[in-house]
Structures are given as structure tokens and as C-alpha cells.
Design goal:
It is a single chain. The chain has one domain. 45% of the residues lie in helices and 11% in strands. It has helices spanning 7-15, 20-26, 39-47, and strands at 2-4, 33-35. Strands 1-2 form a two-stranded parallel sheet. Helix 1 crosses helix 2.
């Protein structure tokens, strides 16, 4: 099954790694094919400073 995820879904999983969304994204390899719009990388880079887990 193919599932389309946008930046909001990815950010939600990043902010709450114990959520059902995070669990679905991180633990469903082989069950789902996740598809994301091209702008997902742009959005991730744009807002990465707001997420401590992205800080190096």
C-alpha cells in the first residue's frame, strides 16, 4: 500500500517519537511504501533549526 506523507506528518513524528504516527513511519518497513512530495526536503531544511534532534 502506498501512503503519501507531507511535512506536517514527518514533523509530528519527529516531535513525538512515541506517537502512533512515529510508530507507523518508523516500524512499517515492508508493509507500506511512503511517498513524499519533492518539497519535503526543502521544508525539513527550512525548519531544521527548530528541532533539537537536527542540531549537530
Amino acid at each position: 500500500m502506498k501512503i503519501i506523507v507531507d511535512a506536517n506528518i514527518v514533523f509530528s513524528a519527529i516531535l513525538n517519537t512515541n506517537s502512533k504516527i512515529a510508530d507507523l513511519l518508523l516500524n512499517s518497513k515492508g508493509f507500506f511504501d511512503f511517498i513524499a512530495p519533492d518539497y519535503l526536503l526543502t521544508e525539513t531544511k527550512k525548519y531544521s533549526r527548530r528541532f533539537p534532534c537536527f542540531q549537530k
